[in-house]
Design brief:
This protein has a single domain, classed as Thymidylate synthase/dCMP hydroxymethylase domain (Thymidylate Synthase, Chain A, 2-Layer Sandwich), CATH 3.30.572. The chain contains seven helices and twelve strands. The longest helix is centred in the C-terminal third of the chain and has 19 residues. The chain is an alpha/beta fold. The protein has a six-stranded mixed beta sheet. A four-stranded mixed beta sheet has the order 2-3-12-10, with no helix packed on it. Helices cover about 35% and strands about 25% of the residues.
């Protein structure tokens, strides 16, 4: 595992690009895409809000797409039932705030849990709670899914009267995914921290199987020159 500690997301991403490979053994994922693998990353960002808007300058997606993704994850905009031709089979908002649990095969209904709401309630009740955890993985669905979630676990904690967040990715696209994910997650931290009326602390991102798709290698080379 490679550990990276930086004051903000931009500096963290620069370090990721610095170590990202452009040559090496090419591997094939389950969807048939070629990629270069990177060792597991643990990125600790001490001041996530600092220069957050500058992160869009490092993403190939651009500000409009990043804002779209942020609004989808944090506020539930652009979800499938509103725009079925444009979305995946689920969104992170749905997995976090409308987490469907098969309550009973006999009853034939789904129990939905708003995990973010429950986390806020738990931290209001006991600010030192170690149980403010949300998951997106649904084994009864995702083990056979063609599009399982990459972001699988979020753990909120309050330290020194600040909201901190640690997240786990089972797999992480470092070029088209990392900036987008961090941008949205920091805004989710803002949403929760404002509800709790406290400041924002660190963001910690653990990425298992981080990778660079071969289609993005030229962009990595260009970004390395930009550092």
């Amino acid at each position: 595992m490679r550990a990276i500690t930086k004051p903000n997301a931009v500096e963290a991403f620069k370090r990721i690009i610095d170590i990202a490979p452009v040559y090496g053994d090419i591997k094939l994922d389950e969807s048939g895409y070629m990629y270069l693998e990177v060792e597991t990353l643990c990125v600790h960002i001490t001041d996530p809000l600092r220069d957050l808007d500058k992160l869009v300058d490092w993403s190939p997606l651009g500000k409009q797409a990043m804002d779209y993704y942020r609004d989808q994850l944090v506020y539930g905009a652009h979800i499938k039932k509103e725009n079925p031709e444009d979305e995946a089979e689920y969104t992170y908002y749905q997995r976090l705030r409308e987490y469907g649990v098969p309550a009973s095969e006999v009853a034939g209904y789904m129990l939905e849990i708003d995990q973010i709401k429950e986390i806020i309630s738990k931290l209001k009740e006991f600010e030192l709670s170690r149980r403010a955890v949300a998951v997106t993985w649904q084994p009864w669905v995702d083990l056979e899914s063609n599009d399982p979630p990459c972001l699988d676990l979020l753990k909120f904690t309050i330290k020194d009267i600040k909201l901190c967040l640690s997240v786990v990715f089972r797999s992480h696209d470092l070029i088209k995914g990392w900036c987008n994910n961090i941008y949205a997650l920091v805004h989710l931290m803002q949403y929760v921290s404002m509800t709790l009326d406290i400041g924002i602390g660190y963001l910690e991102v653990i990425s298992f199987d981080p990778h660079v798709y071969m289609s993005d290698v030229d962009r990595v080379k260009m970004l390395k020159e930009k550092i």
